[in-house]
Amino acid sequence: MRTPPDHRPAVVAGRDHPAPAGHRSPAGRPAPAPRALRAVRLGPRSLAALVLVSAVGAVAFLWPFLAPPTSQLSAHAQDAPWLFAGLLVLLVAVVAATISESDLGPKAVAMLGVLAATGAALRPVGAGTAGIEPMFFLMVLSGRVLGPGFGFALGSITMFASALLTGGVGPWLPFQMLSMGWFTMGAGCLPAPVRLRGRAELLLLALYGFLAALAYGTVMNLAGWPFLDRSASGISFDPHAEVPANLARFVAYCLATSLGWDLGRAVCTVVLTLALGPAVLRALRRATRRAAFETAVTFDAPPG
Predict the structure, then answer these.
(1) What's the N-to-C CA distance of the chain in angstroms?
(2) What does DSSP assign to residue 236?
């Protein structure tokens, strides 16, 4: 009597389910190196939208240094941040929609929701003490495991959810969403995990988290600096001053107002990455393998 065939989905070992180390193909050649799983693969449309929003975001952050003192934009220095904030809301929404249209399946949506909710819940923890924000280390590790496309969507959505949770909704929110999207996406652009594992990978992630946390604070200073009343002090933005003068004012503003907070965030990210990184990376990679985002599911033909 012949046993009937199994009708469960058949998953074949391949690029997303690599063979064990030392495995050789039937022809005697070594099996190809495993490739990192990605919850979202950036296609041409989503990549173009991401490049567009990043370019507009760079202009939105750097316009105080790009606009000459005689331009109309400098004449509306108090209105320009609001204009860019509204524009960034639309562009971030376009990027999120484009990424979701590319290949964001139900399993990826579920993981996105869980990680965004976790990050939003972690943000208020210690945020009032020297910039200690545990959510940054989770964003670094998530972007590392799940890739740049998923990382950008995760960073933006997490910041939006945390703003709703903490009541931090304002003209600065679109800048925070874009900055956190860049922050998380950058972790997914680091050297492939199949080439770098163990302690070397952990040190790389800690270094990236330290530098990116400092960069996040500096970029967000660019978003809030033009709002500062220029009659209040000598470190505020002056639309009539030349670029070198405004650059000196901005450096003084960062040193006087946010350096201690940014260093606290950076050190907290490094400590949590080194202490909890191995366990969190294993959990994320295990969940990603079980989700099998990219695995093509095939079914055996029915008998007869």
Answers:
(1) 15
(2) S
